[in-house]
């Protein structure tokens, strides 16, 4: 029946999402109606700004839950696994609901609108992934190829490291992602400078972060200081790759944006010359390393949110991860050089 239906893939997917949205939104908006009736006697008015933000975030949460369940089920190998794995979408969505409840209790409407915007972006990404990856043939053929799962996983991992480009060719292939990561540094510096001179973020909020970074160098001998700096920087580039899987590559952009933000904020409290002097000469090595690591992490995020009806999602993600791991052969020695420069000349 599913194969012979004249409906297109997009129409089947839209109908699946709409059917679930209709029931879920009816129940959710019924709860909002009860909330309005409960608070109206005490307030004497309806908080429209809060209600509109809640209504928008509710639609996005339900859409994200449905799309996430579809994506998970599409990547399952059996019908039973699809049903079990899709039910786990409740866990991250429960965190989103608790966050929304905390923001309601906080009473800051702008935070609710920010949360609604975040859920809107998440829903759009998941809906697009589900639409691109939806295939009726894949659903009906999910029980095929179930033999030797561990061997298939090992073969897929081995294949992801084969015939990969060298570091220079890899950087050329990922030049767009590297450019986005590079933009993060001046964008963060501009944002930090504006936040500092306008007082949008109080100085006592940022000073602990700056103090922590300064203290990361540690004390003692130059060897101890170098080891402390290397461990701090190495931890950052090792964490950014797995975080890219769950943040759609946002961690790669933040790898350059956040240091730029701290640099700009420090410049707003003193001057650009003093702030820039603090990152020379080690920054001449650390900044390119951060851009390369951030760009490759962005590629991991792009592979994570890109799905095709023909499949291959796992292979694309593993290939992006393999490129990142292979690049560490060049990034880690560069971090060691940067630490030596910072201790010796910083």
List keywords for this structure.
346 residues; mainly alpha; 2 domains; 0% strand
Overview of this structure, please?
The chain is mostly helical. The protein folds into two domains: 9-140, no CATH class; 149-345, no CATH class. It has helices at 9-43, 48-74, 79-87, 90-106, 109-133, 136-140, 149-160, 167-173, 175-198, 203-215, 222-247, 250-269, 272-277, 283-304, 313-345. The termini are far apart.
* DSSP summary, beta strand count: 0
Distance between the termini: 70 Å
Largest sheet: none
The overall pLDDT average reads: 80
Helix content: over 70%
Gyration radius, in Å: 24 Å
Order of helices and strands: HHHHHHHHHHHHHHH
| Structural class label | mainly alpha
Share of residues in strands? under 5%
The residue ranges in which pLDDT falls below 50 over 5 or more consecutive positions are none
What is the number of independent domains? 2
Figure out the total of helices. Answer: 15
* Envelope shape: flat
Outline of the structure:
The protein is an all-alpha fold and 346 residues long.
Task: Tell me the layout of helices and strands.
Blueprint: H1 9-43, H2 48-74, H3 79-87, H4 90-106, H5 109-133, H6 136-140, H7 149-160, H8 167-173, H9 175-198, H10 203-215, H11 222-247, H12 250-269, H13 272-277, H14 283-304, H15 313-345
Helix pairs in contact: 1-2, 2-3, 2-4, 2-5, 7-15, 9-12, 9-14, 10-12, 11-12, 11-14, 11-15, 12-14, 14-15
């Amino acid at each position: 029946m599913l194969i012979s239906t004249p409906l297109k893939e997009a129409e089947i997917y839209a109908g699946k999402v709409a059917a679930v949205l209709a029931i879920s939104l009816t129940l959710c908006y019924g709860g909002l109606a009860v909330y309005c009736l409960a608070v109206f006697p005490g307030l004497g008015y309806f908080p429209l700004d809060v209600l509109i933000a809640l209504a928008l975030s509710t639609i996005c949460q339900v859409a994200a839950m449905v799309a996430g369940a579809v994506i998970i089920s599409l990547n399952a190998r059996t019908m039973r696994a699809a049903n079990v794995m899709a039910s786990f979408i409740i866990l991250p969505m429960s965190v989103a609901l608790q966050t929304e409840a905390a923001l309601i209790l906080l009473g800051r409407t702008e935070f609710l609108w920010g949360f609604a915007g975040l859920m809107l972006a998440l829903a759009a990404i998941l809906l697009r992934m589900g639409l691109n990856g939806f295939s009726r043939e894949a659903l009906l053929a999910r029980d095929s190829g179930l033999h030797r799962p561990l061997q298939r996983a090992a073969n897929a991992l081995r294949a992801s490291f084969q015939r990969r480009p060298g570091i220079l060719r890899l950087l050329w292939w990922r030049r767009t992602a590297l450019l986005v990561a590079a933009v993060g540094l001046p964008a963060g510096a501009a944002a930090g400078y504006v936040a500092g001179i306008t007082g949008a973020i109080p100085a006592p909020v940022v000073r602990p972060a700056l103090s922590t970074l300064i203290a990361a160098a540690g004390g003692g001998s130059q060897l101890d200081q170098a080891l402390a700096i290397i461990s701090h920087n190495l931890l950052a580039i090792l964490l950014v790759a797995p975080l890219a899987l769950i943040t759609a590559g946002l961690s790669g952009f933040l790898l350059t944006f956040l240091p730029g933000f701290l640099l700009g904020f420090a410049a707003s409290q003193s001057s650009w010359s003093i702030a820039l002097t603090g990152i020379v000469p080690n920054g001449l090595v650390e900044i390119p390393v951060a851009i390369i690591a951030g760009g490759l992490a962005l590629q991991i995020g792009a592979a994570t949110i890109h799905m095709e009806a023909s499949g291959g999602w796992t292979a694309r993600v593993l290939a992006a991860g393999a490129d990142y791991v292979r690049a560490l052969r060049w990034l880690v020695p560069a971090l060691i050089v940067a630490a030596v420069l910072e201790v010796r000349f910083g």
